[in-house]
Amino acid sequence: MQFKHFLKFNDFCRDEYEYLFERARWIKQEFKQYRQYWPLSDRTLAMIFDKNSTRTRLSFEAGMHQLGGDAIYLSTKDTQLGRGETVEDAARVISRMVDLIMIRTYQHDTIKRFAENSRVPVINGLTDEYHPCQIMSDIFTYSEYRGSIEGKTVAWIGDSNNMCNTWLQAAEIFNFQVRVSTPPGYDINPERIGLNDATHYETYANPREAVMNADLVTTDVWTSMGFEAEAEQRKNDFAAFCVNTEMMSLAKSDALFMHCLPAHRGEEVSAEVLDGPQSVVWDEAENRLHTQKALMEYLLLGKIKNEM
Ligand code: CP
Ligand code: NVA
């Protein structure tokens, strides 16, 4: 049987994202009107979490219910995965019992091995390397406020983490520029991310230069899940990388601010910016629900005609 996984942002092409955004807009509008839409009745999503989550769990679980299906939460801690059952064996078993699987884990290789042994589509709900569902929501959110992100400039300030890597992959697909500013020793690794070329990003030692005239300024926690042992060291290393009002004022006057959340006010972003008028962080979070509903519908039913 032919089916697709969604493990990395560049697993999908631009046309597929345009289709998903069109569907997400329609699904969001129906949801806001309290109209029932149950294309996935009798379908089941298994969600496997190796790490904590608020938004990802809730958006997938609520999203699946709202599409008429069921979602089952599985934590590595209380499944046999936590007692040494191999990822391959777990994939073979779980994928015989459900229609769709979402995984949040550490190494990207784990989700790849799972997908290779799965009979059903697998979605990346975050790995150390990538967070494609979040960037799908972020680009959809950008389009709601400002239209297409094509040709725009995104300033990434802070850690070269899963969010940063995924923005870099997205820039090649949507044809925009990413200016990355990280402290020394936390640089991006373009080969590891599998970028096609170096035409969609530039690196800056000074975060203020990266932000200059940007259309969108974005950042993320200094210490991602799995890196907690480095937290104190990172607080020192990232001290000059807080997106505050002064830094934000260097971007275009209508620039947006994004953060995937959870955020730490006073560390990677000031409270004034996070809670200020340029911040669209709550929409980014809400749009996880609508874009992932479009994603699940697409992975299970393929392209369907828009009712609009
Ligand atoms: N942004 C995001 O993925 O949030 P959670 O960790 O709460 O799922
Ligand atoms: N970079 C963060 C994102 C959390 C949603 C982490 O991996 O912890």
UniProtKB/TrEMBL annotation:
It holds the Pfam family OTCace. It is found in: Cytoplasm. Keywords: Cytoplasm, Transferase. One of its GO terms (biological process) is L-arginine biosynthetic process via ornithine. GO terms for molecular function: amino acid binding; ornithine carbamoyltransferase activity. Pathway: Amino-acid biosynthesis; L-arginine biosynthesis; L-arginine from L-ornithine and carbamoyl phosphate: step 1/3. PROSITE patterns: CARBAMOYLTRANSFERASE (PS00097). It catalyses: carbamoyl phosphate + L-ornithine = L-citrulline + phosphate + H(+). Transmembrane segments: none annotated. It is an enzyme of class 2 (transferase). Its EC number is 2.1.3.3. Residues 150-299 form the Aspartate/ornithine carbamoyltransferase Asp/Orn-binding domain. Reversibly catalyzes the transfer of the carbamoyl group from carbamoyl phosphate (CP) to the N(epsilon) atom of ornithine (ORN) to produce L-citrulline. Belongs to the aspartate/ornithine carbamoyltransferase superfamily. OTCase family. This is Ornithine carbamoyltransferase. It comes from Nitrosomonas supralitoralis. The lineage of its organism: Bacteria, Pseudomonadati, Pseudomonadota, Betaproteobacteria, Nitrosomonadales. The gene is argF.
